[in-house]
Predict the structure.
Amino acid sequence: MISDRQEMAQMSSNERAMRHGELKHLRSLKKEFHMAAPRKKKILKFEDGVDAGDVSDGEGAGGDNIDIRDVEFRLRNDHKQVKVRQSCTF
């Protein structure tokens, strides 16, 4: 497995600059997510004709939701690493 430093040494200056910009953007998204108002508690809703297992988080549909797990994954992993690892598994 290649370490992060070895991988950075293999990248060109342009690739490193692009990755740095991507990381900066992802960090700002993560910061915005954590600084946003606290999420409302999830509440089970009971309605006739609807499965009682439905869960509502109190937010309306169509909100601008950030998938924080996706952001954290992309912070930890370069898209090139993911493609290489994915191709090795087949």
